[in-house]
Amino acid sequence: MTTSAEENAEQANLTSDNVSGLQEMVGNCTNMTKQVVGVSEELVRYIKKFDTSSILSK
Predict the structure, then answer these.
(1) Tally of CB atoms within 10 A around 30
(2) pTM (2 decimals)?
(3) Nearest C-alpha neighbor of 31 from the set 42, 43, 23, 19
């Protein structure tokens, strides 16, 4: 029974470590997504500005 309890404790620690790692990855992905969205929004603004300039020059 002691062996089983020790194995359960080890598995619980491993699971806890894995969950912590997953939470860190999710945080990193969230930050990267925000950066991509920011760059995309900036590109859209440039495209709209370019389109407006093109229309005005015709």
Answers:
(1) 10
(2) 0.65
(3) 23
